[in-house]
Amino acid sequence: MLAAAALLLLLLAAGPGRARRDALREELLLSPLPAGEVAATFQFRTRWDADLQRGAVSHYRLFPKALGRLVAALGVRELHLALTQGFWRTQAWGQPPLQAPAGAELWVWFQPTVTNVDKAWKELSNVLSGIFCASLNFIDSTNTVTPTASFKPLGLANGTDHHLLRYAVLPREVVCTENLTPWKKLLPCGSKAGLAVLLKAERLFHSSYHSQAVHIRPVCRDASCLAVSWELRQTLTVVFDTFSSGQGKKDWSLFKMFSRTLTDTCPLASQSKVYVDISPKNKEKELLEVTPTPASVHEAIVQGDKRTYAVYDLLSPSLFNTSRSLNVQLKWKRPQDSCYIHYQPAQDRRRPHLLEMLIQLPANSVTKITIQFERALLKWTEYPPDPNHGFYVSSSVLSALVPSISAMKNMDVEQSPLFTSLFPSSDGSSYFVRLYTEPLLVNLPTPDFSMPYNVICLTCTVVAVCYGSFYNLLTRTFHVEEPSRGGLAKRLANVIRKFRGVPPL
Amino acid sequence: DLASAASQGGMGIGVKFPALLAPPSSPEADAALHLLQDASLGSLTVYVVPETSSLLPQGISVYVGKHRSALVRAGGGLATLRTRIRQLTQVMSFTASSIAAALSDRVPDGQLSPDARRHLKSSLGYEITFSLLNPDPKSHTVDWDIEDAVNRYVQPVLDKLSLVANFSVDSQILYYAVLGVTPRFDKESSSFLLSAHSLPHVINPVEARLGSSAASLYPVLNFLLYVPERSHSPLYIQDKDGTPVSTNAFHSPRWGGIMIYNVEAPASPQASLPLHVDVDMVRVMEVFLAQLRLLFGLSREELPAEFLLESLGNEGLADWELDRLLWAHTVENIATVSTTLTSLAQLLDKIGNIVIKDDVASEVYRAVASVQSAMAELATGHLHSAFQASKEAVTSSERAFFDPSLLHLLYFPDDQKFAIYI
Fold it and tell me: Which one Pfam family would you cite for this protein (chain B) (predicted)?
């Protein structure tokens, strides 16, 4: 009986009897960027060992049916669609892992069996526009090209006739929540389990750069490459700026970025890992501390550079032993506290901007601090009497502790002269100094203040002319006037005129 | 007499008196006779056997075969024979109510029975999707051998129906897809119940996950198999009078069907999760195929007591049932074409300066010619050619009506043009 029970349990534990033909791997890569931001890249990869080209009947499990039917019906060999908002600032952030142009980008390789590629391209863009709720149906011959040299196929290819390639970009396309939701629906676990629980729209679109992409291509099934599998990769890259949202420190955690932590693994995933880039950055010689302690560390050469990654494997049972959720946190351990930023944004008509920075200036160097601003229009009663003079921005203040060349002795305040005792000095090795910059005069756009006067004048004139004319026409009456013989003065005048020889009145 | 009885019943009925046959049972007789007749589409052959014959079992006076023939016992006089043949034609061929049901979209409400608007509209093709919904993949790992089940059980039926339309079948598995309704816990049976009036609310949230068929224009029939979560097991559907439905499934007209598959709780409560479930495809496919027949309107009404139907085996569909479907679809196609062309004519009346392109005009002419030939073929009883002609008519009329150049907004009325100039 016990042996039978043990055998039964063994059969159950051996896993499903049927060999699965598809597999899901999910991965999250967190890399701190040199300027202080954090880039998070999600990748979900579904590999399906099936032939989508032939066969009238297809049975889908992890591969989404909408994309599978599309690929089979329209004869698509490779499909790459990317929706991006923002621009990757290579100068400040370094090289991007995956970059896409702003807006929507779609490039597709068709199978050689497709006879009318343009018709298939038009139908494909319309269908994708419906699936992803993006206005890709504006793709037509006016914004489609056939590149001859670049955009070679990324998957298996049997010869590349570039007439089977189509490429289109819509730079005006805006990415928002309604594009993210159908993208999440294509994942087998949806957004209910696994890494996809972190994808909440209200945090993802509050970022400096957001890019989501779908890549479908055929790959080799194994090393001998005798059979073809189909691979679907869904990637999402987002860059968070922790400075403006936080307390000015460069520490971050999963909860601060996504307002969620990882609680569950997706039962359908064969692999589910989080990688954190802990390579030391030479410039600042800072040490990184990652909590919780990673189970293993992985070294890889990425984009020509050797990098070290801390690995968290969500499928290993030891990870969720201590706490039911995983919140990866990164702290910077610096030899000295050297950078503190406090920024309080302005509220209109209530308080001004306040920016305080504590920085360490290296010797013999120039440090430039730049702030971008926009000019706005005020309400017309808020302008001063001389608006064209400009508006003043108050001086900036620089307070510093400068090391002094010769040491000072601690002296009694009452005994020393007044000019040495204004700023107290804690020790004799440095002295305190406060400097002010020049005030800034900014020319803001001013409206034309004479316009109300002009409008009133014109309106009144028009009203007066019209009303006056009408009133005149309606109320003017004509009388016939009898010429009168005239009074005494008139007769006297006539007599004088007769003497002069002028005709009478 | 007999000739008038035959002509009263309908079209294409031939009454034959064969020589005395030796085979003992009705199915074998039917199969043997099938080789003798020319069973063209829409025809019906009735064999009248003597009253004392042992070909038909005791108490049965009419035997309906699965091809287009039937055996009727002659007895009790000509009036009984006439009644039996009339009942037979009402079962095996069309009736006034079945034709009215085909035209149900155009007939005012009061004149129809409540079942009238349930059948699928006639279309050139249908897509059938089987979906397995697993809301709790942590507790259940569900496997179904859908490919084998489709090839073995569904494909023969669809092959038989291929005359009517093009069919395409696919399947998918959806995880974390929940029903929109929370079931009630019933203490007496210690199970969860879904009442009949909450069933319409089940479909909407699920439909968002099913996805639309992006690559084709045919209507989709969805058949869902739902494996309830461990916390809501077992789950039963309650009828209107409170009894659990025996098949634990329901269907929605013109949409598809849903079946709930309960997983037995494991014997020992410490069994390791997830439980592995292998779906019994025979039970599932029985229900889905029955729902498919209901959706197409191939259901069997109550037969009189003396009738016996031959069992259909794997094909699932008798030839005469296919004929009934074709009659209904032909009539519906002709009605659709007339409605479409009438709307087009009304549009032309309303907008005097619309421009009709040459190819649109030729499509309209072709549609009219096809409809006329379809009606002529129907009058003579040639069902196959009537159906083909009606399909061509529908294609041509849709192509003419939905041409982009006929867009109403492209044409301004004349008074608006004068308004601009003024």
Answer: PIG-S
